[in-house]
Write a structure and sequence with these properties.
It is a single chain. The chain is 75% helix and 0% strand. With 114 residues, the chain is mainly alpha-helical. The protein has one domain. It starts with a helix and ends in a 10-residue tail after the last helix.
């Protein structure tokens, strides 16, 4: 019976440690997604300078980027939760693709430049 006590104690410690490690991983993933969205917002805001271009196509791109920045700011928390639920791999190109796809499915993407 004494041989099993250390084994049982070790198993209990492992079982208690596993959920803590899972929470840390989830927190770091959430932080990664939030930072990725913030970076996309920064990039979109930089592209809004195109709205003053003489080219109609570049002006349209500038307005689209302004709408994307507005969408990402408004739906940031929802997007993070959705990415975590779908277990999106934390790779820059996958996150950018996901955000772009989600944006293009919204009414923000269809707002006309005035």
């Amino acid at each position: 019976m004494r041989k099993f006590t250390p084994v049982v104690a070790l198993m209990v410690m492992v079982l208690l440690a596993v959920p803590v490690m899972g929470d840390e991983e989830a927190d770091s993933l959430k932080t990664y997604y939030e930072a990725a969205i913030d970076e996309e917002i920064i990039q979109s805001r930089q592209m809004t300078s195109l709205m003053t271009s003489r080219s109609p196509n570049l002006r349209q791109k500038g307005h689209r980027e302004a709408n994307m920045a507005m969408y990402l700011e408004t739906h940031r928390d929802e997007l993070v939760v959705d990415m975590m639920e779908m277990n999106l791999e934390p790779k820059t190109y996958k996150v950018e693709r996901y955000l772009s796809d989600r944006f293009s499915q919204t009414s923000y993407a269809n707002l006309e430049a005035k």
